[in-house]
Amino acid sequence: MAYEVHVLYDGFSKMTENGMEANCSCTLIKGPKKIIVDTMTAWDKELIIEGLARHGVTCEEIDYVVCTHGHSDHIGNNNLFMNAKHIVGFSVSFKNTYFIHPFETGDLFEREEDIKDPHLWQHVAGSDEPGLQRQNRNRVLQLADWVVPGHGPKFQVTQKMKQDVEDILNNSDNQFHYI
Ligand SMILES: [Zn+2]
């Protein structure tokens, strides 16, 4: 079954004097089922409707809304998709019904640069579980050809990236034992 992946908007994040400015990447996965991944901030409704229209898709046709985690810039327009099952971080629901599922998600990758500079995902974006995230980043990079990070343009996975992330994993015992 063929699926197409269309990034509707590239996410971003940057530190400013007042804190942080950010919005998430918003992605349409189009095939036998139609899936939207992360729905931006509550102020981006028109952008999402327009982005879908560019690919001939309406909000009513979306089967699944996947929000990688519950931050406000990832869930802002979930209520555009009333026919979809909603998967938000750990919870999977349709109307009042919640399904039990062992999901663990988040901004696994903040943006491409965080492969060379782990400080970006660990401290600037912040990680609840750095050890687990480090392992899952490695696992995904070994499998994927392309990654759509939470807050940056999609990027192609290179052999060098696979190696870098693996090296970080193997060296992590020394690197992260601070007292
Ligand atoms: Zn995010």
Task: Give a structural overview.
This protein is an alpha+beta fold and 179 residues long. It has two domains: 4-99, Metallo-beta-lactamase, Chain A; 112-175, no CATH class. It contains five helices and eleven strands, in the order E-E-E-E-E-H-E-H-E-E-E-H-H-E-E-H. Strands 1-4-5-6-7-8-9 form a seven-stranded mixed β-sheet, with helices on one face. A hairpin with a 7-residue loop joins strand 10 and strand 11 (155-156). The longest helix is centred in the last third of the chain and has 17 residues, at 159-175. It starts with a strand and ends with a helix. Residues 174-179 have low confidence and may be disordered. The protein binds zinc ion. Zinc ion is lined by residues 24, 71, 74, 107, 150-151. The site of zinc ion (ZN) has 6 residues, from loops.
Compute the separation of the termini in Å. Answer: 51 Å
Widest sheet: strand ordering: 1-4-5-6-7-8-9
- What is the assigned CATH homologous superfamily of the largest domain? Ribonuclease Z/Hydroxyacylglutathione hydrolase-like
For the largest beta-sheet, the strand count, sense and barrel status come to: 7 strands, mixed
* Ligands bound, unique: zinc ion
* Average of pLDDT: 90
Task: Identify low-pLDDT runs.
Answer: 174-179
Number of helices: 5
Characterize the overall form.
globular
Q: Give the helix level as a range of percent.
A: 25-40%
Top-tier CATH class of the largest domain: Alpha Beta
The share of residues in extended strands comes to: 15-25%
**Overall structural domain count:** 2
Radius of gyration: 17 Å
Give the topology string: H per helix, E per strand. Answer: EEEEEHEHEEEHHEEH
Q: Remind me, CATH topology of the largest domain? A: Metallo-beta-lactamase, Chain A
